[in-house]
Hints:
CATH superfamily of the largest domain: MetI-like
Number of strands: 0
Structural class: mainly alpha
CATH topology of the largest domain: MetI-like fold
Strand content: under 5%
Oligomer: single chain
CATH architecture of the largest domain: Orthogonal Bundle
Number of helices: 12
Amino acid sequence: MMSEISYHQQQYIRHQKREKKLVLFLRIFILLFFLVLWEISARTGLIDSFIFSSPVMIWHSFCSMCRDGSIFPHLSVTITETLVSFLFVVVLGAGMAVLLWTCPRLAKITEPYLVVLNSLPKSALAPLLIVWLGANERTIIVCGMSVAIFGSILNLYTGFGEADPEKLKLIETLGGGKKEKLMKIILPSSVPLLLSVMKVNIGLCLVGVIIGEFIGARKGLGYLIIYSSQTFKLTWVLMSIVILMIIAMLLYVHYHSVHHRYYPVRTPRTD
């Protein structure tokens, strides 16, 4: 029986490895196919290379800016602002969700306001934040936070309310209070939800930072996009967009490595 179970587990592991390799291959193939098609279309005149540029032109512009060092200040500013805003969103979002869970009356009062604030177009808030706080890095960080913070609070608070009621009842039976419920049941069971919310928020913070840099910055990839579009350096615009996509991809890969470290894929048991 043990050998049969081991055989099925090995089959499952092999299947998962094949599936992972196939998914990785298809991802790389789609990317390379798109880049080759883009380059060929630009070289043959199917698309206007001045407007749409090409992968080779973007690469040459990136290498040129790396050689003179002009790209690095923009990269460091955007990445720093994104990470700082993301850190604040995680801490404040989790803290506010815990506060709302511990104070149901406060949750009932503030929930409509959180829903309304979460629904507001954040691009409309950015000019107001620039006027109120000034055109500085602090304002850009607040812009990044504003895109993600309200949704984060709502999602985490809703997730806290979906904890197993039987386990909560058991804590009450054993004489535990809200603190014991929070530390023993709510927070441990909400770790997957928190990681999922973080995956979404890191991208939203990047979007918010770029929106802020569009309006009130002198450094950053958002500023570089606006400056390049105004001076008709469209290759720089596309280069900045590609860099943003690479940053988002690296953040996504880092999230998955952390997620799989703490929640590895388990092989099914065959009883």
